[in-house]
Amino acid sequence: NTVMAAQMTNAHRRFLQILMSNGITEGSEARKLHQRCCETDKVYYAHDKLDDFISTINSHLQPLFMQIRKGISEDDGRAHYAVAILAETELTKMASDYTEIELELFRKTMDLIILSETGFASSTDILNLADQLKTKKMKKKEAEQVLKVFVEDKWLSEKNGEYTLHTRCIIEMEQYILSNYQDVARKCNICHSLAIQSQVCESCGIGMHLPCVRKYFRGQTEPRCPKCNEFWSCDAP
């Protein structure tokens, strides 16, 4: 009977536990982990069955409003897995780890990143927010420390003083972002997942992840928008 969810084994439990403690796991690592868990717990292993293995876990997580989700790194287009909380509450998962003022700084940083054209916010702009927080004002030094922690915990990533949302954050908070930033949050026209760092068509406004842009325009001499067919004016990454 296919309606019954497949049994959770110790291999599934081990896999889930490690995935949760990692925060985020790159695709090839997840495949190795799948093999290791099955072999350790002497559970049938098939190398091409990772998706089935994960959906078994997900069917048991469903009543807990949790789900292992797959997402794509906006830098290099590689697959990653993270455990997402699906309850639509305000940053539920983070709330247990950070103080109210830290969360406020995070939300404001998220605003800057999502409302920006490029999907990045400069440290200068973020630190300028620190003394305008409602909870209480935060000194710049303090704010710098908090940003560092957000990077270490893989909610933000930083390149040359510019911050963007970490792949983990995008996977785990996709629902939250799409429902709280309805007017501005874009889905990538190619892979249909949330695009924070993206290129945007000047004519019709669709967005695409940089790795998706690279793949889509590969070998095209005159790149045209997949939606409106106008010339794609952004420099190909």
Automatic annotation (TrEMBL):
A Gene Ontology molecular function term of the record: zinc ion binding
Enzyme class: transferase
Catalytic activity: S-ubiquitinyl-[E2 ubiquitin-conjugating enzyme]-L-cysteine + [acceptor protein]-L-lysine = [E2 ubiquitin-conjugating enzyme]-L-cysteine + N(6)-ubiquitinyl-[acceptor protein]-L-lysine
One GO CC term, this protein: Smc5-Smc6 complex
InterPro entries: Nse1, Nse1_RING_C4HC3-type, WH-like_DNA-bd_sf, Znf_RING, Znf_RING/FYVE/PHD
Pfam families per the UniProt record, alphabetical: SMC_Nse1 (PF07574), zf-RING-like (PF08746)
EC number: 2.3.2.27
Biological process annotations from GO: double-strand break repair via homologous recombination
UniProt subcellular location: Chromosome, Telomere; Nucleus
Gene3D superfamilies (alphabetical): 3.90.1150.220, Winged helix-like DNA-binding domain superfamily/Winged helix DNA-binding domain, Zinc/RING finger domain, C3HC4 (zinc finger)
Entry annotated with the keyword Endoplasmic reticulum: no
Subunit-structure text: Component of the Smc5-Smc6 complex.
Free-text function comment from the UniProt entry: RING-type zinc finger-containing E3 ubiquitin ligase that assembles with melanoma antigen protein (MAGE) to catalyze the direct transfer of ubiquitin from E2 ubiquitin-conjugating enzyme to a specific substrate. Involved in maintenance of genome integrity, DNA damage response and DNA repair.
Assigned protein family: Belongs to the NSE1 family.
Protein name: Non-structural maintenance of chromosomes element 1 homolog
Organism for this UniProt entry: Chloropsis cyanopogon
Gene responsible for this protein: Nsmce1
